[in-house]
Amino acid sequence: MGSKPKFQKPRPVAFNLADIDKKFKAGEKVCPETLIERGIIRRMIKRGMRVKILSKGEISCALEFENCLISKQAKEKIEKAGGTIKA
Fold first, then answer.
1. Which tens digits make up the pLDDT trace of 31-68?
2. Helix (H, G, I), strand (E, B) or coil at 87
3. Statement: the pTM of the whole predicted model exceeds 0.85
4. Is the separation of the CB atoms in 65 and 54 below 8 Å?
5. Does 3.40.50.150 match the CATH number of domain 13-86?
6. Is 71 in contact with 52 (CB distance < 8 Å)?
């Protein structure tokens, strides 16, 4: 018998805080749907694909992040700016 291919989860689409800071104003919600609306993501290519926020750059206003994976350093920067993160 041959070996079966292992199921691999799709890699998340990664973005930096600097990209998000340019497109959003204070108090706005950042989620995959709003990232598509603002043109940061063209579309979710595969079903179940996730978005990951990385820490490159700074964030100048408090934003609400929802349904995004967030790096440890990005989380610190978001919370320092007064933003919130929801699972």
1. 988 988 888 887 665 566 788 999 999 999 999 999 99
2. coil
3. no
4. no
5. no
6. yes
